[in-house]
Protein backbone atom coordinates (compact mmCIF):
# COMPACT_ATOMS: atom_id res chain seq x y z
CA UNK A 1 0.00 0.00 0.00
CA UNK A 2 2.82 2.39 0.93
CA UNK A 3 4.61 1.58 -2.32
CA UNK A 4 1.47 2.27 -4.31
CA UNK A 5 0.90 5.60 -2.56
CA UNK A 6 4.53 6.58 -3.14
CA UNK A 7 4.18 5.86 -6.84
CA UNK A 8 1.04 7.98 -7.03
CA UNK A 9 2.75 10.92 -5.36
CA UNK A 10 5.71 10.68 -7.74
CA UNK A 11 3.33 10.56 -10.69
CA UNK A 12 1.43 13.59 -9.41
CA UNK A 13 4.66 15.55 -9.00
CA UNK A 14 5.73 14.61 -12.53
CA UNK A 15 2.43 15.97 -13.89
CA UNK A 16 3.02 19.29 -12.12
CA UNK A 17 6.66 19.53 -13.11
CA UNK A 18 6.40 18.10 -16.62
CA UNK A 19 7.67 20.69 -19.15
CA UNK A 20 4.98 19.76 -21.66
CA UNK A 21 2.05 20.36 -19.29
CA UNK A 22 -0.31 23.16 -20.38
CA UNK A 23 0.26 25.03 -17.14
CA UNK A 24 3.68 23.68 -16.15
CA UNK A 25 4.67 25.46 -12.96
CA UNK A 26 6.50 24.93 -9.70
CA UNK A 27 4.97 22.96 -6.85
CA UNK A 28 5.23 26.14 -4.75
CA UNK A 29 3.06 28.07 -7.19
CA UNK A 30 0.57 25.21 -7.39
CA UNK A 31 0.14 25.27 -3.60
CA UNK A 32 0.11 29.08 -3.52
CA UNK A 33 -2.70 29.06 -6.12
CA UNK A 34 -4.63 26.40 -4.25
CA UNK A 35 -4.60 28.32 -0.96
CA UNK A 36 -4.51 31.99 -1.96
CA UNK A 37 -5.57 32.55 -5.57
CA UNK A 38 -8.14 35.30 -6.06
CA UNK A 39 -11.16 34.11 -8.13
CA UNK A 40 -11.42 37.57 -9.75
CA UNK A 41 -7.72 37.95 -10.61
CA UNK A 42 -7.30 38.29 -14.41
CA UNK A 43 -3.84 36.67 -14.05
CA UNK A 44 -5.39 33.49 -12.65
CA UNK A 45 -5.40 30.52 -15.07
CA UNK A 46 -8.86 29.24 -15.92
CA UNK A 47 -8.20 25.88 -14.28
CA UNK A 48 -7.40 27.50 -10.91
CA UNK A 49 -10.57 27.96 -8.88
CA UNK A 50 -9.33 30.43 -6.27
CA UNK A 51 -10.76 31.27 -2.84
CA UNK A 52 -12.75 34.40 -1.91
CA UNK A 53 -11.09 34.41 1.53
CA UNK A 54 -7.97 32.56 2.66
CA UNK A 55 -8.91 30.10 5.40
CA UNK A 56 -7.31 30.98 8.76
CA UNK A 57 -5.77 27.52 8.99
CA UNK A 58 -4.12 28.00 5.56
CA UNK A 59 -2.60 31.45 6.08
CA UNK A 60 0.84 30.37 7.36
CA UNK A 61 1.17 27.73 4.64
CA UNK A 62 0.07 30.21 1.97
CA UNK A 63 2.70 32.74 3.10
CA UNK A 64 5.38 30.05 3.04
CA UNK A 65 4.73 28.78 -0.47
CA UNK A 66 3.67 32.07 -2.04
CA UNK A 67 6.87 33.72 -0.75
CA UNK A 68 8.93 31.18 -2.70
CA UNK A 69 6.74 31.28 -5.83
CA UNK A 70 6.70 35.10 -5.77
CA UNK A 71 10.36 35.18 -6.77
CA UNK A 72 9.34 34.33 -10.33
CA UNK A 73 5.58 35.01 -10.49
CA UNK A 74 3.73 38.31 -10.15
CA UNK A 75 0.51 36.36 -9.52
CA UNK A 76 2.15 34.66 -6.56
CA UNK A 77 3.45 38.03 -5.34
CA UNK A 78 -0.12 39.38 -5.40
CA UNK A 79 -1.34 36.26 -3.59
CA UNK A 80 1.43 36.66 -1.02
CA UNK A 81 -0.02 40.10 -0.33
CA UNK A 82 -3.44 38.51 0.14
CA UNK A 83 -1.99 36.03 2.63
CA UNK A 84 -0.24 38.80 4.56
CA UNK A 85 -3.45 40.84 4.60
CA UNK A 86 -5.39 37.85 5.89
CA UNK A 87 -2.79 37.61 8.67
CA UNK A 88 -3.24 41.34 9.41
CA UNK A 89 0.34 42.08 8.37
CA UNK A 90 -0.63 45.23 6.50
CA UNK A 91 2.88 46.59 5.94
CA UNK A 92 4.01 43.30 4.42
CA UNK A 93 0.85 43.11 2.29
CA UNK A 94 1.43 46.63 0.96
CA UNK A 95 5.04 45.82 0.11
CA UNK A 96 4.05 42.66 -1.76
CA UNK A 97 1.27 44.41 -3.67
CA UNK A 98 3.58 47.23 -4.68
CA UNK A 99 6.06 44.76 -6.12
CA UNK A 100 3.26 42.89 -7.92
CA UNK A 101 1.79 46.16 -9.25
CA UNK A 102 5.22 47.22 -10.53
CA UNK A 103 5.31 43.95 -12.47
CA UNK A 104 1.86 44.65 -13.97
CA UNK A 105 -0.57 42.89 -11.63
CA UNK A 106 -3.85 44.78 -12.02
CA UNK A 107 -5.33 43.04 -8.99
CA UNK A 108 -2.47 44.37 -6.86
CA UNK A 109 -3.15 47.85 -8.26
CA UNK A 110 -6.77 47.56 -7.17
CA UNK A 111 -5.88 46.40 -3.65
CA UNK A 112 -3.41 49.25 -3.23
CA UNK A 113 -6.02 51.65 -4.58
CA UNK A 114 -8.52 50.46 -1.98
CA UNK A 115 -5.97 51.03 0.79
CA UNK A 116 -5.19 54.54 -0.42
CA UNK A 117 -8.85 55.32 -0.97
CA UNK A 118 -9.83 54.26 2.55
CA UNK A 119 -6.63 55.15 4.40
CA UNK A 120 -6.32 51.60 5.75
CA UNK A 121 -2.68 50.92 6.61
CA UNK A 122 -1.42 53.86 4.54
CA UNK A 123 -2.01 57.61 4.48
CA UNK A 124 -5.30 58.31 2.71
CA UNK A 125 -4.65 59.59 -0.80
CA UNK A 126 -7.61 59.62 -3.19
CA UNK A 127 -5.46 60.97 -6.04
CA UNK A 128 -3.13 57.98 -5.73
CA UNK A 129 -6.10 55.63 -5.42
CA UNK A 130 -7.57 57.05 -8.63
CA UNK A 131 -4.26 56.61 -10.50
CA UNK A 132 -4.07 52.98 -9.44
CA UNK A 133 -7.70 52.28 -10.37
CA UNK A 134 -7.17 53.99 -13.73
CA UNK A 135 -4.12 51.83 -14.47
CA UNK A 136 -6.08 48.69 -13.60
CA UNK A 137 -9.13 49.86 -15.56
CA UNK A 138 -7.09 50.69 -18.65
CA UNK A 139 -5.76 47.12 -18.53
CA UNK A 140 -9.35 45.82 -18.41
CA UNK A 141 -9.60 44.78 -14.76
CA UNK A 142 -13.34 44.85 -13.84
CA UNK A 143 -12.68 45.82 -10.22
CA UNK A 144 -10.47 48.65 -11.40
CA UNK A 145 -13.32 49.91 -13.55
CA UNK A 146 -15.97 49.72 -10.83
CA UNK A 147 -13.78 51.22 -8.12
CA UNK A 148 -12.78 54.04 -10.45
CA UNK A 149 -16.43 54.75 -11.13
CA UNK A 150 -17.27 54.64 -7.43
CA UNK A 151 -14.45 57.09 -6.75
CA UNK A 152 -15.75 59.48 -9.36
CA UNK A 153 -13.75 58.25 -12.32
CA UNK A 154 -16.85 58.15 -14.49
CA UNK A 155 -16.82 61.95 -14.54
CA UNK A 156 -13.12 62.13 -15.42
CA UNK A 157 -11.58 63.62 -18.55
CA UNK A 158 -12.85 60.71 -20.66
CA UNK A 159 -16.30 59.58 -19.47
CA UNK A 160 -16.93 57.87 -22.81
CA UNK A 161 -13.92 55.62 -22.18
CA UNK A 162 -15.09 54.97 -18.63
CA UNK A 163 -18.49 53.98 -20.01
CA UNK A 164 -16.83 51.63 -22.49
CA UNK A 165 -14.82 49.95 -19.74
CA UNK A 166 -17.89 49.65 -17.54
CA UNK A 167 -19.81 48.00 -20.38
CA UNK A 168 -17.16 45.29 -20.55
CA UNK A 169 -17.10 44.79 -16.79
CA UNK A 170 -20.92 44.79 -16.55
CA UNK A 171 -21.04 41.45 -18.32
CA UNK A 172 -20.12 39.76 -15.04
CA UNK A 173 -19.82 42.41 -12.31
CA UNK A 174 -22.90 43.72 -10.45
CA UNK A 175 -21.22 46.95 -9.29
CA UNK A 176 -20.32 47.67 -12.91
CA UNK A 177 -23.94 47.01 -13.87
CA UNK A 178 -25.09 49.57 -11.33
CA UNK A 179 -22.47 52.19 -12.25
CA UNK A 180 -23.13 51.79 -15.98
CA UNK A 181 -26.85 52.06 -15.30
CA UNK A 182 -26.23 55.41 -13.60
CA UNK A 183 -24.22 56.68 -16.57
CA UNK A 184 -26.90 55.58 -19.02
CA UNK A 185 -29.69 57.08 -16.92
CA UNK A 186 -27.86 60.43 -16.71
CA UNK A 187 -26.50 60.45 -20.26
CA UNK A 188 -22.91 60.59 -19.02
CA UNK A 189 -20.30 59.62 -21.60
CA UNK A 190 -22.90 58.99 -24.31
CA UNK A 191 -26.60 59.01 -25.11
CA UNK A 192 -29.17 58.74 -22.35
CA UNK A 193 -30.96 55.38 -22.41
CA UNK A 194 -33.53 54.72 -19.67
CA UNK A 195 -34.51 51.33 -21.07
CA UNK A 196 -30.93 50.01 -21.00
CA UNK A 197 -30.34 51.64 -17.61
CA UNK A 198 -33.42 49.97 -16.15
CA UNK A 199 -32.31 46.59 -17.49
CA UNK A 200 -28.94 46.98 -15.81
CA UNK A 201 -30.48 48.13 -12.53
CA UNK A 202 -32.85 45.17 -12.63
CA UNK A 203 -29.95 42.79 -13.22
CA UNK A 204 -27.96 44.19 -10.29
CA UNK A 205 -31.08 44.39 -8.10
CA UNK A 206 -31.63 40.66 -8.63
CA UNK A 207 -28.26 40.22 -6.90
CA UNK A 208 -29.37 42.47 -4.01
CA UNK A 209 -27.30 45.53 -4.86
CA UNK A 210 -28.78 48.23 -2.54
CA UNK A 211 -28.27 51.13 -4.95
CA UNK A 212 -29.72 49.21 -7.88
CA UNK A 213 -32.76 48.24 -5.80
CA UNK A 214 -33.33 51.91 -4.91
CA UNK A 215 -32.98 52.94 -8.58
CA UNK A 216 -35.42 50.22 -9.64
CA UNK A 217 -37.86 51.62 -7.09
CA UNK A 218 -37.48 55.10 -8.56
CA UNK A 219 -37.77 53.87 -12.15
CA UNK A 220 -40.84 51.75 -11.37
CA UNK A 221 -42.44 54.62 -9.47
CA UNK A 222 -41.92 57.08 -12.33
CA UNK A 223 -42.38 54.62 -15.19
CA UNK A 224 -38.88 55.34 -16.54
CA UNK A 225 -37.58 52.84 -19.07
CA UNK A 226 -40.56 50.54 -18.54
CA UNK A 227 -43.99 50.18 -16.95
CA UNK A 228 -45.08 52.29 -14.00
CA UNK A 229 -45.81 50.12 -10.97
CA UNK A 230 -46.21 51.66 -7.52
CA UNK A 231 -46.45 48.29 -5.78
CA UNK A 232 -43.20 47.09 -7.36
CA UNK A 233 -41.57 50.42 -6.51
CA UNK A 234 -42.49 50.01 -2.85
CA UNK A 235 -41.15 46.45 -2.81
CA UNK A 236 -37.84 47.57 -4.31
CA UNK A 237 -37.56 50.44 -1.84
CA UNK A 238 -38.26 48.11 1.08
CA UNK A 239 -35.57 45.66 -0.03
CA UNK A 240 -33.05 48.49 -0.50
CA UNK A 241 -33.95 50.05 2.86
CA UNK A 242 -33.50 46.71 4.59
CA UNK A 243 -29.95 46.68 3.19
CA UNK A 244 -29.31 50.15 4.60
CA UNK A 245 -29.88 52.39 1.58
CA UNK A 246 -30.72 55.86 2.92
CA UNK A 247 -32.34 57.14 -0.30
CA UNK A 248 -34.73 54.19 -0.25
CA UNK A 249 -35.63 54.92 3.38
CA UNK A 250 -36.42 58.52 2.44
CA UNK A 251 -38.51 57.38 -0.50
CA UNK A 252 -40.57 55.13 1.76
CA UNK A 253 -41.05 57.97 4.24
CA UNK A 254 -42.21 60.30 1.45
CA UNK A 255 -44.70 57.67 0.33
CA UNK A 256 -45.98 57.29 3.90
CA UNK A 257 -46.20 61.04 4.50
CA UNK A 258 -47.00 62.51 1.09
CA UNK A 259 -48.65 65.77 2.19
CA UNK A 260 -46.55 68.69 3.44
CA UNK A 261 -47.99 71.58 5.43
CA UNK A 262 -46.12 74.89 5.15
CA UNK A 263 -46.44 78.25 6.88
CA UNK A 264 -46.93 81.62 5.13
CA UNK A 265 -43.20 81.89 4.49
CA UNK A 266 -43.09 78.52 2.80
CA UNK A 267 -41.34 76.74 5.65
CA UNK A 268 -42.29 73.12 6.27
CA UNK A 269 -44.31 72.80 9.46
CA UNK A 270 -45.19 69.13 9.33
CA UNK A 271 -46.08 66.23 7.08
CA UNK A 272 -49.36 64.39 7.02
CA UNK A 273 -48.82 60.66 7.18
CA UNK A 274 -51.22 57.86 6.30
Mean pLDDT: 85
Low-confidence stretches: 1-23
What structural class should be given to the helix and strand makeup? Answer: mainly alpha
For the largest beta-sheet, the strand count, sense and barrel status come to:
2 strands, antiparallel
Cα end-to-end separation: 78 Å
Oligomer: single chain
Could you please describe the fold and organization of this structure?
The protein is mainly α. Helix content is 62%, strand content 3%. The protein is built from 14 helices and two strands; from the N terminus they run H-H-H-H-H-H-H-H-H-H-H-H-H-H-E-E. Helix 12 (210-222) packs antiparallel against helix 13 (230-242). The longest helix is centred in the N-terminal third of the chain and has 16 residues, at 2-17.
Question: Can you lay out the helices and strands and say which pair or pack?
Answer:
Blueprint: H1 2-17, H2 27-36, H3 59-69, H4 74-86, H5 90-102, H6 106-118, H7 126-138, H8 142-150, H9 159-169, H10 174-186, H11 194-205, H12 210-222, H13 230-242, H14 246-256, E1 259-262, E2 268-272
Antiparallel strand pairs: 1-2
Provide a compact summary of the structure.
This protein is 62% helix and 3% strand. The chain is mainly α. It has a two-stranded antiparallel sheet.
